[in-house]
Amino acid sequence: MGRHRDWRKIAKRERRRKIRKHNAKNREPLEQQEIEQIEEDNRRENEKWLQAELITITRIKKLEAERQRNLQKQLVAEAKMREEWEEEKLRREKESQRLKQIEEENLARQAKFLNSLEEFLNGNLSEPPEELSTYRETKPNMELCPFFVKTSCCRFGDQCSRNHQYPAISNNANFNEYDTDVMLEYEESETSRHYKDFFYDVLPEFQKHGKITQFKVCNNYEKHLRGNTYVEYLDIRSAVRAYRALHSRWYGGRQITLQFCQITSWKNAICGLQSRKRCPKGRSCNFLHVFANPENLFMYYDIPERKPLTSKTSWRWSESPERTSPKRKRSKSKDREKERSHHRHKRKHSKRR
């Protein structure tokens, strides 16, 4: 029994050894394949890493080159800015000197102008200074605005598509002071009373500076005409004197703003249908609707001079048909019949031909 047991142990051990040997022989090719696969994977990973490293190095080089270029550009820009700043500084110094010279010239010219203006106002000069013989134009190359030419006002102001000419000096002065809003609160009789008070209050102030030939105040509802007061002097010297004395003064809590205007014909400026109360636009008309001055002052300049009637146009010397004698009537009728018969004879003769 003891020997058999030992023999079985030896047999089992040999069998296990053979199995291990057989398994070892079968396992060697698999391990070799795994090793080769691992090496292939390592090689691929190494190539990927090298490629990624090459891309990274290339990108870093590009970034470095771009940084160098930007740095170079920045240096060039700073140098250019420094140069431009130096040029701007030099230009400002020159401009400052030029403006200072212009200011000195303007001050000298202004002093000369004021001296000439004083001499003109005092009567030592017959003509106004040259600086006042000019026009300010809003659109020099455009056609003149017809409403501004007639009334010196336009509903569009300086935004008008046509040209407005503002004279530097004129014997007409215009200022917007009379408050026509009273027409919205009072009746016509009360408005007339208010205007009468305004007329006798303002007119003496303007008469202090010269003889007035026209005084008109608008009662239009339009904003550009509402409350406009037109004062026309006999000469330019009086208008300039009034402008210098009254411009920017205060009246009734408002500051007066005077400007020169050029109205060549009051007949064309004032609405012709206003006096007859037939204007279809009423106070919204763009022509001047003016108040009637107390005591009919300055009314003469509204009426155009009438030409004397000749004998041909005068109705006093025309022959009245009621006063013609019956003999003359008969002679006229006979003459007409003769003319008619003569025309009939001519027509018949032409038809026969």
Automatic annotation (TrEMBL):
<feature type="compositionally biased region" description="Basic residues">
    <location>
        <begin position="1"/>
        <end position="24"/>
    </location>
</feature>
<dbReference type="InterPro" id="IPR000571">
    <property type="entry name" value="Znf_CCCH"/>
</dbReference>
<dbReference type="InterPro" id="IPR000504">
    <property type="entry name" value="RRM_dom"/>
</dbReference>
<dbReference type="InterPro" id="IPR009145">
    <property type="entry name" value="U2AF_small"/>
</dbReference>
<dbReference type="Pfam" id="PF00076">
    <property type="entry name" value="RRM_1"/>
</dbReference>
<keyword id="KW-0694">RNA-binding</keyword>
<feature type="zinc finger region" description="C3H1-type">
    <location>
        <begin position="139"/>
        <end position="167"/>
    </location>
</feature>
<keyword id="KW-0677">Repeat</keyword>
<keyword id="KW-0863">Zinc-finger</keyword>
<feature type="domain" description="C3H1-type">
    <location>
        <begin position="139"/>
        <end position="167"/>
    </location>
</feature>
<feature type="region of interest" description="Disordered">
    <location>
        <begin position="310"/>
        <end position="353"/>
    </location>
</feature>
<dbReference type="InterPro" id="IPR012677">
    <property type="entry name" value="Nucleotide-bd_a/b_plait_sf"/>
</dbReference>
<feature type="domain" description="C3H1-type">
    <location>
        <begin position="265"/>
        <end position="292"/>
    </location>
</feature>
<dbReference type="InterPro" id="IPR035979">
    <property type="entry name" value="RBD_domain_sf"/>
</dbReference>
<feature type="compositionally biased region" description="Basic residues">
    <location>
        <begin position="341"/>
        <end position="353"/>
    </location>
</feature>
<keyword id="KW-0479">Metal-binding</keyword>
<dbReference type="GO" id="GO:0000398">
    <property type="term" value="P:mRNA splicing, via spliceosome"/>
</dbReference>
<feature type="domain" description="RRM">
    <location>
        <begin position="184"/>
        <end position="263"/>
    </location>
</feature>
<dbReference type="GO" id="GO:0089701">
    <property type="term" value="C:U2AF complex"/>
</dbReference>
<dbReference type="Pfam" id="PF00642">
    <property type="entry name" value="zf-CCCH"/>
</dbReference>
<feature type="zinc finger region" description="C3H1-type">
    <location>
        <begin position="265"/>
        <end position="292"/>
    </location>
</feature>
<feature type="coiled-coil region">
    <location>
        <begin position="68"/>
        <end position="112"/>
    </location>
</feature>
<dbReference type="GO" id="GO:0008270">
    <property type="term" value="F:zinc ion binding"/>
</dbReference>
<keyword id="KW-0175">Coiled coil</keyword>
<dbReference type="InterPro" id="IPR003954">
    <property type="entry name" value="RRM_euk-type"/>
</dbReference>
<dbReference type="GO" id="GO:0003723">
    <property type="term" value="F:RNA binding"/>
</dbReference>
<feature type="region of interest" description="Disordered">
    <location>
        <begin position="1"/>
        <end position="36"/>
    </location>
</feature>
<protein>
    <submittedName>
        <fullName>Uncharacterized protein</fullName>
    </submittedName>
</protein>
<keyword id="KW-0862">Zinc</keyword>
